[in-house]
From TrEMBL:
Keywords: Methyltransferase, S-adenosyl-L-methionine, Transferase. The keyword Oxidoreductase does not apply. The keyword Membrane does not apply. InterPro entries: NNMT/PNMT/TEMT_CS (IPR025820), NNMT_TEMT_trans (IPR000940), SAM-dependent_MTases_sf (IPR029063). It holds the Pfam family NNMT_PNMT_TEMT. This is Similar to indolethylamine N-methyltransferase, isoform CRA_b. Belongs to the class I-like SAM-binding methyltransferase superfamily. NNMT/PNMT/TEMT family. PANTHER family: INDOLETHYLAMINE N-METHYLTRANSFERASE, NNMT/PNMT/TEMT FAMILY MEMBER. One of its GO terms (molecular function) is methyltransferase activity. It comes from Rattus norvegicus. Coiled coil: none annotated. The lineage of its organism: Eukaryota, Metazoa, Chordata, Craniata, Vertebrata. GO terms for biological process: methylation.
Length: 157
């Protein structure tokens, strides 16, 4: 991951490796203290945004989800449904691995535990994961202005 330069969407789509990205930037076990603090700062701000009662509703559309779930952990408490979108299929495939509990999916447990600690009960992290998996109902790939469904869970609308 380090040292790669992406010149445009095509390079990004061909060369970007979601698992390397996640391991580099979203692991409390690796990376620098600064990177860990940035993640904690983001989680704290997302928690504050969604827990104050000012933001919530029926559907949240996350534009540019990437292969990540951290930005949705507090949101799943105040939205009935979350739709994830991204530019590259490989990002959404990595996201789907986690949503479906597939072997080799990225382990978000330390991030989820941190959010649960912010919410007051670190021990309920498995409940939080289950709730997020239920709440993220669709994942769309957005490519050159076209939307196509990568995956859909649940009954047809």
């Amino acid at each position: 991951m380090a040292g790669k330069v992406y010149m445009g969407g095509e390079d990004y789509e061909k060369e970007f490796t979601p698992k390397d990205y996640l391991t580099t930037f979203y692991s409390f076990d690796s990376g620098t203290v600064a990177e860990q603090e940035i993640v904690k700062f983001s989680l704290q701000n997302l928690y504050q945004t969604f827990s104050t009662g000012g933001v919530g509703g029926d559907v949240l559309i996350d534009i540019g989800s990437g292969p990540t779930i951290y930005q949705l952990l507090s949101a799943c408490e105040v939205f009935r449904e979350i739709i994830a979108t991204d530019y590259t299929p490989q990002n959404l495939q990595e996201l789907q691995k986690w949503l479906k509990k597939e072997p080799g999916a990225y382990d978000w447990s330390s991030i989820v535990q941190h959010v649960c600690e912010l919410e007051g009960d670190r021990s309920r992290w498995q409940e939080k994961e289950a709730k997020l998996r239920r709440t993220v109902t669709r994942a769309y790939c957005v490519n050159d202005g076209l939307y196509f469904v990568v995956a859909r869970k649940g009954p047809s609308a």
